Amino acid sequence: MRNLMLVLGLTLMLAACAGAETPTTAPGATATPAAPRVVTLMSHDSFAVSEQVIAEFEAQYNAKVAFLPAGDAGAALNQAILSAGNPMADVFFGVDNTFLGRALQADIFEPYASPELAHIPDALELDPQHRLLPVDYGDVCLNYDKAWFEKAGVAPPSGLDDLTQPEYKGLLVVENPATSSPGLAFMLATIGHFGEDGWLDFWAALRDNDVLVTSGWEEAYWSESTWAGGGGRPLVVSYATSPAAEVYFSEGALDAPPTSNVLGPGACFRQIEFVGILAGTENRDLAERLIDFMLGQRFQEDIPLQMFVFPANEQADLPDFYRWAEQPTEPAEVDAARIQSQRETWVQQWTETVLR
Amino acid sequence: MISPGGTRRSLARVARMALYALPLAFLAVFLFYPLLSILGVSLAPQGRLDLSALGELVRNGYYRRTIWFTTWQAVLSTALTLALGLPGAYVFARYAFPGKQLLRALTTIPFVLPTVVVASAFRALLGPQGRLNLALMETLGLERPPLNLQHTLAIILIAHVFYNYTVVLRLVSGFWANLDPRLEEAGAVLGAGRWRLFREVTLPLLTPAVAAAALLVFVFCFTSFGVVLLLGGPRFATVEVEIYYQTVSFLNLPMAAALSLVQILFTTVLIWLYTRLQARTTVPLNLRPRSMTTRPAQGWRARLMVAFNVGLIVLMLALPLLALVERSLATADGYSLAYYRELSVNRRGSVLFVPPLEAVRNSVSFALVTVALALTLGTLAAQILASQGNARARAKGGAAILVRGLRALLDPIFMLPLGVSAVTLGLGYIVALDTPPLNLRTSAWLTPLAHTLVALPFVVRTLLPALRGMNPRWREAAAVLGAPPWRVWLEVDLVIIGRAMLVAAAFAFTVSMGEFGATSLIARPDRPTMPVAISRFLSQPGALNQGQALAMSALLMGVCMVAFMAIERLRVGEIGEF
Description:
A: D-Maltodextrin-Binding Protein, domain 2; D-Maltodextrin-Binding Protein, domain 2; 11-stranded mixed sheet; 11 strands; B: mainly alpha; globular
C-alpha cells in the first residue's frame, strides 16, 4: 500500500511538472510553419470579446489568442509588475487612468505608435510615448431609481452639491475607494469638482447625511439599490451605461431603463482603459498586430456590448440599445500624475473622514 | 551486525523516509519557496533588507487595533461555533434519525458558496427589507425594521458560525462516533450523573478532536476575508483584509509583507501552543465501529436533543440556502427555470462564455485532483505527526535528535497554509514559479495545487485524532503475527482511519469546489470554475445576470450535495465503519 501511495504521489508530482513544461498559453511558444503562433493577452477579469471577432484576427494572422484573466484591475497590474522582464503574456489590457502613473513608473511596457491612433481623440491619449494606448472609456456616475423619485415626489439630484441636502438624506450608497474601482473613480470626481481644498468637507457633510459605504460595486448594486437589490437606496454609484445594460439584460421585459444618471457638471469621472505590449515579449510583431486589431473598427464596435464601455475609436458605431447609455458633457478632471502621487493619501483622508 | 534482515529493515527505513519527505517537499516548493521569494522582493527590493514597514506597523495605532480586532473576533467566533456545534456533534455521533445523512451533507454546503452569494442570501433574510424583518414588522406592528444587522459585528459572527459549523460537526462527531460507549456505561454503573459523565469521561477523551476543530475554526476566522469585507462592511478590517488593501489598492508591498509576517507569527505561535496541549491530552483508545455506538433516539430527552439540533441546522443553515434557491427560480413572470436555461445560452457570442456543464466539469476535475493530492500528502503528513510519540521511532544518535527537533516544528508547518495570506502567496507564485521546470504561472495545474495547499491542513487535522487515538498494541499484534509493515498499515491503520479519510476527502473536495479567494488573485488560463462563473455574472448589471448567478450558485450546491452523499455512502469493507 505504501508503494502504491508512493507511485501515486510521484505520478501526480511528475504530472504537475510535465504540465509546467508544456504550457499552452505561455508566451514565446516556438512556431512550426503550419501551427498557429500563440499570442497571449493578459487582462483583468472584466475583459470580454466576441468569439467571431477574435476568430477573424486568428484567421488573418494564423495566430491563436490565449486569454489570461488575472483578477481585478489592481491585482492584474501587480502581477504584470512583479513579472517584469519575464512576462506571462505578450499584451496587457486594462490599465486605467488611475493606475496609469504606477504602470508607467514600473517601466513594463514597450512603446508602439499604432497607425490606428489616427482615429482616436487626443484627449484619450495620456502617454505621449505610446507605451499605453487608449482602447475604451466609460464614466462612473450616480444611477438613480426613476420610479422611486417619482413616487416620493422628490426631484432627482442635479449634481454632487445636491447630495448633502436634507431631502437626499439616507438615499445614497457609494463604494469604498480602497477596495472598489468605481468607488475610487467617484472619490476622484468629488476631488475634481470640489478641489483638493473642499472635497473632504463635502464628504463630511455626506457622512452627516447618512451615506452608506459598501466594499464593492456588487454589494451596492445587488443588495442596496431599490431597483435591483430590494434595498433601501435609490442612488447608487455605478456606470453611466448601467441603465442601458438593465434594458439589455431584462429578459425582454423592459423597453426603457428603470434608472437614469445624474449628469451635472463634474458629477462623473471618466475611466479610460489602456493596452500595451509587455516588455520582454518574444512575439513583438504579433503583439503589434493584436494592438492594431484591438484599436481597429471591428474590435472597437464589439466593445460596447461585451464590456459596456464606449470605444475609443471615433469610427466605431454603437449598438442600438446604447441610446439609453448617456454621457456626461463635463466629467470631472483630475491629472493622472497627480492621482498617482496622491492616491494613497487621498484614500486615507477619505477613510478618516467617512469611516472613522 | 549486518544481516540480510538488517539490510531489508534499513531499506524499508529509507523507503519510509522518502515517502515522508513527499509532503514536506510539496510544502517547500509550493508554500515556502514562493512565500520567501515574495517576502524577499517586498522587504528587500534592492537586495538590502528594509524593515521600516515592520516598524511602522508597530508604531501606528491603526495596525495595532486591526491585529487586536482580528484576534478577538476570531476568539468570539470560535467560541460561538463550538457552543452551537458540540451539541450537534453529540446528536450526530450517538443517535440515528431519519434524514441524518442529508442534514450532514447540507451543513457542508456553506463552505463552498462564494461570500458574495452568501451575503446576498443573508440580506434577503436578515436585511432591512429581509423576510425576518418584514415578518417581525407585521406581527409586532412596527414602523421600522427591528433588526439592523447590516455592517455589524453580529453579522460577522453569524456568518462565521454559518461557514464553520460543519468543521466542528464533522470533526468532533466523526471521532465521537467511534468512542467506546462502554466507558460511559461503566461510569454510569458506578453512579456518575449525566453531567459528571460528560465532564469527567467523555470530554477528556474528546479533547483532541475538539481542540483540532477549534484550531481550524480559529485560524479560518483569524484570516477571514470575504465575510469581513462584504458583510462587516468597510469599518471592519482583519489583517487579511488590510493585506488586500495594501497590495491591490496601494501596491504597497512592504507593508503587505509586514502584515503577512504578523499573521504567520500569530498562527504559528497558536499552533505550537495547541501542539503542546494536545500531546498531553491524547490517550490511546479502543475505537469501536459506529454500528456499536449509535442508536435510535428514544425517550423524550433524546428526542428533544435531536429536535433542537435539527431545528438549529434548518434555521441557521438551511433557510439562507433555501432562500437562494427560491430567488434563483423567481423570475419577472413568476417561478420558472428561465435562469437555468439561460445559463447555456451564449447571448453575446463572448469568447469567455462558460457553458454550465463545462464549469461543472472544470470545478469537479480540479476538486478530484485536489482530493487525490491532499489525501495522499495529508495521510503521509499525519503519519509522520502521529509517530512522534511512537517508541519505535526513537532512534539514537545526533541525527535522531535533529529529527526530533524538526518534528516539534512539523505540526505548525502543516497548518501554516491556512495562516498564510492568499493575496501574498498568489503574488509569491508569480515571483517564484517563473522558470522551467517550475514555470507554473500560467499553468492550469496552479489551481488544484493551490487548492491542495489549503485542503492539506483539514486533511491532517481530521486524520490525526484517529491515528493518535489508535491503540498501538493492535499494530504490534499484527506485526507479531508476521504481517509486513504495508499489511499492518492496510489492515489496521487504514481500517481505523478510513472513516476519517472519508471526512477528509469531503473537506478537500469542498475546499476546492468553493475556493475563490486565492485563485481569484492569480492569473489562470481560461478554465473557469463555478465560483468564477458566478462572479462573472455578478460583475454586470441587469436582472438576467443576477438570476444566472443565483442559478449557478444553486447548481454548485446541487453538485456538492450529490458528491457529499456519495462520499457518505462510500463503504469499502470495514472502511467507513470507523
